[in-house]
Amino acid sequence: MDKTNVYNCNLNIRYDLPGKEWQKITALYERMPGWLGYVQGIPHWFGKDEDAIMITASVEPSGLFFHAEMDEDGWERWIGTFKSEASKVLGFEVGEPEDGFV
Any idea where the domains of the chain sit in the sequence? Predict the structure, then answer.
């Protein structure tokens, strides 16, 4: 079994996007592998806070933030898919601001 690690990722999906753009993101949430739904208003994939494998998201002033606890390969595949699909539905390149994505 692969080692579980903690990952945090901030994306250039701003909190002040128009509502119709956030509707696209919430629809994407539901299409992503491991979707469980909202737990107390927080999107969850794979598990909840007490589970060994989980992903959550929150909208922060700095952008859309993900927190994950899982193996590295699984995380890299999942967040790579999310970035790619979000780029398609939003019409701009989605990535991490520290990597130059604004």
Answer: 5-96
